[in-house]
Amino acid sequence: MSLLSSISTPRDLDALSLEQLEQLAAEIRAFLIENVSRTGGHLGPNLGIVELTIAMHRVFDSPNDPMIFDTGHQSYVHKMLTGRQDFTGLRSRGGLAGYPQRSESPHDVVESSHASSSLSWADGVSRALTRTGRKDRHVVAVVGDGSLTGGMTWEALNNISDDNDRNLVIIVNDNGRSYAPTIGGMARYLNRVRTADTYQTLHRGSDSFFGKLGPAARAFYRGVRGGTHGFLSRFVNNAALYSNLDIKYLGPVDGHDLPALIETLELAKDFGAPVIVHAITEKGRGYEPARNDEADQFHAVGKIDPLSGAPVGGSSATAWTDVFADELVAVGEEREDIIGITAAMLRPTGLLPFAQRFPDRVYDVGIAEQHAVASAAGLAFGGLHPVVAIYATFMNRAFDQVMMDVALHRAGVTFVLDRAGVTGPDGPSHHGIWDLAMLQIVPHIRIAVPRDAERLQEELREAVAVEDAPTVIRFPKGSVSPTLPALERLPDGVDVLARSDAQDVLLIGIGPMAHIAVDVADRLRAQGIGATVVDPRWVVPVQPSIIELAAAHRLVITIEDGIRVGGIGTRVRQVLREANVDTAVDELGIPDEFIDHASREQILEDAGLTAAKIAQDVVSQVLGTRIPVARPTEQRPEWLTDVDAQQRHDEVRDI
């Protein structure tokens, strides 16, 4: 029987010797490689935090001592030690979430997978425990060195240092990387700590010396080690940063040395005030393919061969991100004022090729979306045109800067939002479903949603040509949609994708949803209902031709993969009312809920965003509400008779 299979709660660790804990760590790594290679997921970060997680659960008592993981993608080991070892459905509907999730276990506290928020959570939880008489409990926050590039972390540290009468342990999991290598002054600072020969020599020497003197000397060492660490750390200019914030610092400690980790965490536990434990870890530890991957050390992988680490069963289709990456390089060749900005996501957002071609024209600001956007406003003021590439979900964090720093100052900044709409397996906080509703309220903003690769290329060029307002290009995760040519492009840029002689239903397909709209139109025509399909291309502002087409039809249906409340459909309805167009409007989109992890197809089906479901609903609505249906031009428009209605109702099931 393996040691791992004997662990159902963290307290099962108490009976294991140090040698057995080492064996457990090896079993966990083998388990991760075997299982995550089948499902995909965050492999590298979890391989790097095995010993640290074991030590945390050995020393502290979760869930009595709440454990808060910053971002949460490194919580797989935590799940395994808290009774969740069925990884067969990882990140799939009905299986384990890829991040902490309260519905899975009381051991999970914070579900949000947005970085740099853990210390604020820890600050609040620890204050609450102290004020409500539960001062004996500890709060443990795990934050990566990458998250230290986020300003929110430092806001939290500033406030944590204001109240030392509580049990709060902050573990800095320092592997020198966020998604990719951590950048900036903080990264250089921590790197000097990791490579300081003086500290490493003295640290190893002191451990060895006291270790040889027996239990009594080791107990004494534990008592003085805090001061020793402080002295040695200051000697290599490390702890000064934290001591100036009046927070005790312990470390650095080898994040793969279980005895040292347990000893250090026990010291932190006994301190009685906020403590920072600095653990040096290796992302991808114990798996050569990950360690040899210079790009991101297998931060997130699809299905892979567990022996070689090579992808298996992946799609060879071109990704949306790749189309953007290539076109931005082409634009950069033509315009020297184009500048790229990313928030620690150079490769995932497609800016890497641009950085390789123009290394002095890309700024990676770390996990600092607010700074990225405000800095872009300054670059625009200086005569440049910044292109800020960011995941749609992370755009939420910089809304104030978009509004007050970019839009208010009429700055020409282009935002390229990757992973927009439904993203699937990463779960609630990674879906990019809020951007359209959120950003369209920004004055003067212009938002484009391409339906295929050609539209992405042309809309990107149109976006960077705007110098007096923010522009947005957003596209989904995964492979680019098939090319969908237009029958006609109207003078204001709206593409007509399908039309019938009878103008019954106007279908407005937003970006890739235009493909579904065309499918719906085909199904409606088979039922004798005329449909026109348009792709606005630029969904904000609403173009005049949309108003004219809506006035000529009997029903307008908007289809988008953002939230329905406050989405583009809502804007279309409002614009039509202002234009005194009384055509009925149905807004189809994602419900205003936090959507659990599942495939994109499953989530769209749940939301009713399939061609069959939409067509069926339209036919039922036409029949049930007696919306007039126009006949071909040689016949006069007429209302459906009751006989017609019954006949069509019977045919709906055949759509």
Automatic annotation (TrEMBL):
Binds 1 thiamine pyrophosphate per subunit. Binds 1 Mg(2+) ion per subunit. InterPro entries: Dxylulose-5-P_synthase, THDP-binding, Transketo_C/PFOR_II, Transketolase-like_Pyr-bd, Transketolase_BS, Transketolase_C, Transketolase_CS. Residues 92-113 are annotated as: Disordered. Pathway: Metabolic intermediate biosynthesis; 1-deoxy-D-xylulose 5-phosphate biosynthesis; 1-deoxy-D-xylulose 5-phosphate from D-glyceraldehyde 3-phosphate and pyruvate: step 1/1. Thiamine diphosphate binds at H73, S113, H114, A115, G146, S147, N175, Y287, E369. Mg(2+) binds at D145, N175. Keywords: Isoprene biosynthesis, Magnesium, Metal-binding, Thiamine biosynthesis, Thiamine pyrophosphate, Transferase. It comes from the Bacteria. It catalyses: D-glyceraldehyde 3-phosphate + pyruvate + H(+) = 1-deoxy-D-xylulose 5-phosphate + CO2. It is an enzyme of class 2 (transferase). It holds the Pfam family DXP_synthase_N. Its cofactor is thiamine diphosphate; Mg(2+). Its EC number is 2.2.1.7. Residues 318-483 form the Transketolase-like pyrimidine-binding domain. Homodimer. HAMAP family: DXP_synth (MF_00315). NCBIfam families: dxs, PRK05444.2-2. Belongs to the transketolase family. DXPS subfamily. Catalyzes the acyloin condensation reaction between C atoms 2 and 3 of pyruvate and glyceraldehyde 3-phosphate to yield 1-deoxy-D-xylulose-5-phosphate (DXP). PANTHER family: 1-D-DEOXYXYLULOSE 5-PHOSPHATE SYNTHASE-RELATED, 1-DEOXY-D-XYLULOSE-5-PHOSPHATE SYNTHASE, CHLOROPLASTIC. This is 1-deoxy-D-xylulose-5-phosphate synthase. It comes from Microbacterium lacus.
